[in-house]
Design goal:
The chain contains 10 helices and 14 strands.
């Protein structure tokens, strides 16, 4: 795949001495959805701010579509749309004028049909003549998204776009993201809603303490770092396991009604067949069984704890 954003040995140290980013190397592919996960203060917003030209890097380089973000700032900035965390809007401008003004800032010719459709997609059209100060927090978030998309960027950064917003906006947001993705827009998002990243992202990067711990295909990450479990519902509660089953490292639930077996799906043998045979030989009857896979959230928590 072709990279649209290339980040090389990127570091940021603030005057206070805080190392916000430490030698970040990352290729963002044209047309993908990349989710950046990490706790508060991990460096996600600093990374986005540097790529967008808002914060200066201490060292390293970033190119967007082959253009350096410093020497080619105007070119790279025109390619990028940014939805920031903070609700940074004026008070007395109307929704329509605010979004149109943002389009003009990037040298784009007026296109009222495009702006109208954009506002309709974000359920903002009926508010187009309202002053921004009259809007709720959720509606202001919609305006920020519309402003970021007003100049039809090739790359869209969403920094915690659904934090503190209602379910309806969250659904509208992801429907819009899917549509942009289908049209070829590259999307980079940070989120605390890991389930959203698990549902929508192509790749996932995990940042902690200014370091990029890993970045990989979502399914590959879950397959390699996750674990699969077989949960056995027993007909009769079990207080202890016979010695013949000790090698399986089974976990007994508090009430003894379930046994949990953790295994590697990529091993040559999972051991499930032998386990079931061993249970039968030990006279332990099952009522039911089911399997479960680690979620992206569980993987994220495990990785962050390991590098804290």
């Amino acid at each position: 795949m072709q990279s649209i954003v290339s980040i090389s040995d990127l570091s940021k140290t603030y005057e206070s001495g805080h190392h916000a980013l430490k030698n970040i190397n990352l290729e963002i592919y044209d047309g993908e959805i990349l989710a950046l996960l990490g706790p508060n203060g991990a460096g996600k917003t600093t990374l986005i701010s540097i790529i967008c030209g808002i914060v200066s890097a201490s060292s390293g380089s970033v190119t967007v579509a082959g253009h350096d973000i410093v020497s080619g700032y105007r070119i790279t900035r025109e390619l990028i749309g940014l939805v920031p965390q903070e609700l940074t809007l004026g008070a007395f401008d109307t929704v329509w004028n605010s979004v149109n003004f943002s389009r003009g800032l990037f040298g784009k010719k007026p296109d009222p049909d495009y702006i109208e459709q954009l506002l309709k997609d974000l359920s903002l059209y009926d508010k187009k003549d309202n002053e921004l100060r009259e809007l709720s927090g959720g509606m202001k978030r919609r305006v920020l998204i519309a402003k970021a998309l007003s100049h039809q960027p090739r790359i869209l950064f969403l920094d915690e776009p659904t934090a503190g917003v209602d379910v309806e906006l969250r659904q509208d947001m992801w429907n819009l993201v899917r549509g942009l993705h289908e049209s070829g827009v590259t999307i980079i998002l940070t989120t605390h809603y890991i389930a959203e990243a698990e549902e929508i992202a192509d790749r996932v990067g995990i940042i902690n303490n200014g370091e990029l711990l890993l970045v990989d295909q979502k399914q590959t990450l879950m397959r390699e770092l996750g674990k699969k479990q077989l949960v056995l519902d027993m007909k009769q509660p079990i207080k202890s396991l016979p010695a013949s089953l000790a090698k399986y490292n089974l976990e007994i639930s508090a009430d003894g009604s379930q046994l949990t077996y953790t295994y590697d799906t990529h091993a040559s043998r999972t051991g499930i067949t032998a386990l079931l045979q061993g249970l039968n030989e030990a006279g332990l009857a099952m009522r039911d069984l089911n399997t479960s896979q680690s979620s992206l959230e569980e993987i994220f928590v495990k990785l962050v704890r390991a590098h804290s």
